[in-house]
Structure formats: structure tokens, C-alpha cells
Amino acid sequence: MSNSPAAATRPVPWGGFASRKLAPYLFLAPFVLLFIAFIVAPLVYAFYMSLYRDTLVGGRHFAGAASYIKVTGDAKFWGGVWNLVLFGIVQVPIMLGLALLFAIVLDRGQVYAKGAFRLGFFLPYAVPSVISTIIWGYLYGPTFGPFTQMAKAFHLPPPDFLSPGAMIFSLANIVTWEYVGYNMVIYYAALMAIPSDLAEAAQIDGTSPWQFARLIQLPLLWPAILLTIIFSINGTLQLFNEPYLMRALAGNTINSSYTPNLYAYSLATQNQQYGYAAAVSFVLGIVIAGASYVFTLIANRRRPEQ
Amino acid sequence: MTKIFNPLGRMMQRRDFLKVAGASVAVAALPATVRGAEPVKVLLWSWVPDLQLQVDMFNAAHPAIRVELVNPGQGKPEYQAVRAGLQAGSGLPDVVQIEYQLLETFRQVDAFADIGPYANAHKDEFPEGLWTQVAKGDVVNGMPQDYGPMAMLYHQDIFDKHGMTPPTTWAEFADAGKNIHAADPNVFITDAPFGANADWVLGLLWPMGWKPVSRDGDKLAININDKIAKDFAAYWQDLITASVIETKPGFNNEWYTGLDSGRYATWLAAGWGPLFLTSVAKTSVGKWRAADLPQWDASKFATGAWGGSALAVMKTTQHLAEAAEVAIWLNTNPEATKLYTTKQNFFPCTNALLSSPEWAGDKPDFFGGQEVNKVFAKSASAVAPFEWSPFQDFLYQSMSDEFGASLGGKGTLSDAFDRIQDAVVTYAKEQGFTVD
Q: What is the separation of C-alpha A303 from the centre of its chain, rounded to a whole number of angstroms?
């Protein structure tokens, strides 16, 4: 567009050279300032804190890397990470699989009331996670919850969603319910972006719907899938709201270090170990970055044929 | 009324007023602004609902002080804000609501001013045991606002149905639990939320004389898994193993329904319990009664406390005398304190209210016309002093974690006490205490 002759002769709006150089920074300023104030500055401050140690007797003193060394051997921290690795192995494939299925079915166009379904799948994401956890907590109720009541009506043993063995799946279910719609929308948008001539060509070549999904849609969706997996790794390792709230219902199962974020929260708010809490948070950040990086490496090596 | 930032407007008001009023007596009665001196602003943090009523009464009675009330959230959120303020060295209130159980924890970080010179005159207005919660000798760090002496609330109908009398000792309590559950497997003598409500567990260990953490300066004696704890653990473990009690977390809908529907025959409750129960149990009106906490030794009455808070004055206040007056007046003025029992549903702290015919003689329908307050008032006067640890929220967290782990299959309650002992000793050493 800018190659049109009219563009060349049009006077430059904004005038001089200096203001032209300044303009992009002005436009960036609102973002950069907020980013510095609310992301960079707290990070720097947290890092500073992680190098110090607060004690009830003696106050604050410099500890160097001591807190980081302690985290590497902290069974509570790694126990929490391990909980979430198990959680993620079960939950992420189910969530993304369902999201993909829904997206492809909606894209197919053979669905009645497509808009209503799309909205319906997406709606749980619009419910704040605090609210959905409270709702699911009520549904899971071991004595008076609806599932228990139903089981009793059929003379079946009532399921115990809050027992130590079942808790991780009960949490996975809540998170899946919350985020399937979100991931579905990402996939759906990526599917919409697939040029329609590809579909026409495939149709002329006589592909079955299954072949079309597998050989054309899936490879083209790959970048979107990769993105959602990395988001999911991130989200999983930072799990907080759901276990924090479920603790009020399952205090015998969820302890103060059930997830790494819950652990950092307990360290800061109850143990008054601010420096150590900051160190735990940074190590968690490193774990997340590492997990995402390793996954990207593997994924790039095993990229499906296009 | 609120033309604060308009000096000209104020001048005009003043001139006009002087023209009309004239007499100096009238001037003295004016708000302090008009006399030229600004009233001293005292910032009060509290999560007590409708506390503004009492604050308005205070402000009306004290023209030279203006209390501003802020509610930073119940418990944890407020403590987080206080701790953030202590870390930052700014943003703190003058007067703050703190639960008794956390006073020592905040004393440890030197949060409070000593209001003893103002408050000691009121010492005799409170039960002796309660005063020891806020004072150490002549040093006073808070004024008691509400209280939670423990007693037992029970379903009269369940005991009637099984032809039993409510237990007065723990031995009877265990027997009753086994008999009731044998007769009706859907009924449990009580719910014991070991994994979720550590403060409740502590309230039951209190009458046994449990001293988890005693201090002498920076030297701590930590005796969490002592004989008392082991006896306690063995008793409750027996009930857990026999499945005659449940151990589900308290204070959620399942639990409320459990109390209301008679799944739980008793609730080992605190002074604030009767009115709390009235608000959550809607179908069991008239079926409940109150009795003393079951006793270990029937010959000497012992009891504990669960909950309650005080108003403390922060060390950083610029207006110590005024802040102390706020904390004291709000908790000793007869009208203000009486209003707590009618408006905020508080269990009272002052001897005057505890023995007042109006409060103690109340016969609520929910309890079949029983004078339940008298049961709790008896408990209030018998609560022994308790030594809180200087890191009470860590102790509670360890208790919840380890009791929960035991209930989830990792050993017994007795093992849990051992693990708590280890965790607390490690933590105390890390925090710079000397541990004997």
C-alpha cells in the first residue's frame, strides 16, 4: 500500500525528524512504564529479598545464595512440584484433547446452534476460578454433595472426591472444566485461519474428513498446539487458587506445601520467611522456564511432517 | 460537613458562627476544627462488622479525637497488611484488631506499644484469665474485645432418643460416641477437624495444661509431644480408629448441614458458638443445649478458649495517648460493650456484662429456653492462662499439616505430634532462638 504514488507525495504528519523518532517511544510508554512498575520492579525487589534472610531473632541479614541452596534440597518444594507433574501428565492431554475435538467439530459446520455451543464451551473460562472451585467443592461434598446423594439413591458406595488418592484428579477435573473452552478458542481461531482453498483441494482429491483433520488441519494447527502446551505447563506449575480454596474442604489432604505456589504463600504469610519465599518463587520460575524450554526442544525435533 | 480542603469556606463558617454564638461556652462545645486545633486522627483497623456504630459513639464522646475505621479483611488479610506495613515501616494503623492467639507472634516483631499506664486501671473489669491474654505483668498490649471460652453444645433430641445423658467426662464422651454410632451409623458424637482447625485442637489441649512453647527471652522450651499431648492423641486416635467421630474440616456447608441435621450429636464450641450456630442451623431450632466441656478429672473443673480478639496499639503510632483511649474506651464503655453483645453477637469480655441479668439470663428458643450464656460465662471465669508461641501461625500450620497427614494415612495423631515437635524445633532454631 505504501508503494502507491499518492503515499510518497503526502506530507509527513507529525512533521520533524525528532518527533518521528520520538513517536514510537511515546506510543510504547504506557506499556513500558506499567511493565516496569508492576513486573520488572517487583521482580528486582523479590530477587533482592531472596538474597536476605529474615529471622524473628536478629532480624534481616545478608544470606547470599543460601536460600537457593536450601530450596534445591527442600523436600516440601519438590514434593509440590512432583504433585503438579503428576497432575499435568494426566490433566494437560485430556484438556487439550477435548479442546481440539470441540474446535474441529465446531469448525466442521455440521453442528446445530454452533454459536450456542461455542459460547457454552467457552463460558466456564469466563467464570472466575475462585467461583468455579467453590461450585465444584459443593458438588464434591462427601456427605451431602449431589454426587453422594445420587450414589446413595442407587445404593452405590458414595465416591470420595476429597480423599488423598482422588484429590489430584478432582483438581484436574476443575481445571479441565475451566480451561477447555479457552484452549478451544485458540484452536478454533487457528482453524479459521486455514485457507479455504486447501479444503477445496482436499475435497477434490477425495480425502475423508478424518484424513483431512489428520493430514491437513493438525499440522497447520501445530504452532497453536505448541503454544497451548507451553501455556498449560506454565499454568499447571503455578496452580494456586484451586488447591488453596479446596483446602477448606479437604484439610486432611491438601497441606501447606501441596503446590509450590501454595508453599511460597505459606512461607511468606505464615512463617514470615520472606527471603526464602522469594527464593522458592524464583526457583519455581526457573523450573517453569526449564520445562518449557525442554518441551520446545523435543517438540521441534519431532515436528509432524507437513 | 466535610469541607476539609477549603480553608476559605471554613473561615467563613467560623466567622458566621462566632457572630451568632458569641459565648465561650458554646465555642468549647464545638468540634475542635472550629476552635483552630485539628482533632487527632486515629486510624483503626478491624474486621468487626458494624464497628462503625461504636466508632461513632466514640467520636461523639471525644471531640478532640477522630477515629477512622478501615476493614482490611478478617484475620489473615489484615495480618498480611500489618506485616507488610512492619516490613515497609509505613502504612500502619494506630489501633489494630489482633486475635489473642497472635498477640505474642506480633510482640515478637515488636509491633505493639505498651498501653499499661492507661489500661492497668481497668484490669479488674475483666476475668483474670482473660487479662493474662493481653498483659504480661504491667505491660499491656491489647484490650479484650470478644472471647471464646469453650463449652459443649449438643443435640438434646439425639441423647433423648438413645436414652442417654450428655457426657460430663471424656470417658463418658467416648462411651456415648461408641453407643450412639452403634445404634445409628449415620450419627457421630462429634466432628473433630484436626486437619483444618488447629486453633480448635489447641482449645481442647488448653485445659490439660499443654505448654507447647515456653519462652525465657530468646530461649525456648519446646514440649509439643509431651505426655499431655500423647494422652490427648491416644484418646482421639481411639475414637478415630473406631470411626465413631468424623474428622472433616469445619466451617463449610457440609459441616453446617452435619450439625443441623444431627449427623453430629455435639459441637465442642466456644462462647461465640451459640449465636453462630443459630445463624447456620435453621432446622434444629429448640433441639440444642449447652453443657460444660467434658472433663478429664471430674473433681477439678478445667476449660479452654478458642478465638477472640483484642484491640492493640501499634508501636509506630504518633498519638499513643489517643490511640490507647480508643482501644480502652471501645472495650470498657458500658454502652459500647453492651452493643457488641446485641449488634455484633459477640461473647462479652467485661465482668459487668458476663454477670448482667440481661445477658446471662437470656433464654434463647434455639436452646429450648436454656440460659446458655451462663454455661459459657462459667467457662470464661475458669479459663487458665496460656502461653502462646512467638510464631503461632507456624505452629498452627504444622499442626494442620501433620494432623492432616496422619488422618490421610501417615501414622497416628501421636506420630503427628512428634513430627510437629521436629518441625517447630527446626523452625525455631532457623529463626535464631536457642532451643533447650
A: 22
Same domain, A146 and A37: no
Nearest to A269 among B76, B252, B409 (CB): B76
Count CA within 13 A, CB hemisphere, residue A304: 12
**Which amino acid would we find at residue A280?**
V
Question: Residue A297 burial by CB count (10 A; 0-12/13-18/19+): exposed, middle or buried?
Answer: exposed
- H or E segment at B413? helix B413-430
The whole-number pLDDT of residue B7 equals: 35
Regarding an ipTM greater than 0.90, the answer is: no
**What pairs with residue B69 in β-bridges?**
B44
| Best CA proximity match to B264, nearest among B175, B150, B177 | B177
DSSP, residue by residue, A73-121: T-HHHHHHHHHHHHHHHHHHHHHHHHHHHHHHHHHHT--TTHHHHHHHH
Distance (Å) from the alpha carbon of A49 to chain B's nearest alpha carbon: 11
Residue range A61-68: mean pLDDT, rounded = 93
In order along chain B (436 residues), what is the average pLDDT of each group of 10 residues?
35 38 40 64 96 97 96 93 92 97 94 96 96 95 96 97 96 96 96 95 97 94 97 97 95 94 97 95 96 96 96 96 97 96 93 94 96 96 95 96 93 97 96 93
Structural domain includes residue A10: no
The answer as to whether A265 is a domain residue is yes
DSSP H/E element including B98: strand B95-99
Residue A221 sits in the same domain as residue A268? yes
Looking at residue B383, what DSSP letter applies? P
| Domain range enclosing A258 | 68-301
A145 CB neighbours in chain B (<8 A) are 254
CATH code for the part of the protein at B150-306+363-435: 3.40.190.10
Q: Which of A7, A29, A62 is the last residue of a domain?
A: A62
Residue type, B391: F
Nearest CB to A270 within list B258, B394, B405: B394
Q: Cell triple for residue B402?
A: 501433620
B82: nearest CA in chain A?
A269
Do A21 and A131 reside in the same domain of the chain?
Answer: no
> What predicted TM-score, i.e. pTM, was given to this entire model?
0.88
CATH 3.40.190.10 location in chain B: 39-146+307-354, 150-306+363-435
Cα–Cα distance, B178 to A261 (Å, whole number): 42
A56 contacts B108? CB cut-off 8 A: yes
| CB < 8 Å to B109, chain A | 56, 272
Q: Which of A62, A82, A117 is the last residue of a domain?
A: A62
* Residues A55 and A139 placed together within one structural domain of the fold: no
Q: How far is CA A210 from CA A214, A217, B63, in A?
A: 6, 10, 81
A3 in a structural domain: no
Q: Do A248 and B80 touch (CB under 8 A)?
A: no
Q: Is residue A6 part of a domain?
A: no
If one compares A149 and A13, the residue with the highest pLDDT of the two is A149
Measure CA B256 to chain center.
20
Helix axis angle, A129-140 to A146-153, nearest 10°: 30
A72 and A202 share a domain? yes
Place of cell 475435538: A101
* A255 interfaces chain B, CB cutoff of 8 Å: yes
* Pair (A48, A108) in one structural domain: no
Q: Which CATH class is domain B39-146+307-354?
A: alpha beta
Q: Give residue A58's pLDDT band: very low, low, confident or very high (50, 70, 90).
A: confident
Q: How far is CA A105 from CA A98, A116, B69, B192, B201, in A?
A: 11, 13, 56, 50, 54
Total domains in chain A come to 2
Q: Quick one: pLDDT at residue A11?
A: 57
Q: Of B273, B237, B250, which Cα lies nearest the Cα of B198?
A: B250
Q: Do A137 and B252 touch (CB under 8 A)?
A: yes
Among candidates B141, B100, B70, which has minimal Cα distance to B328?
B141
**Is residue B182 helix, strand or coil?**
helix
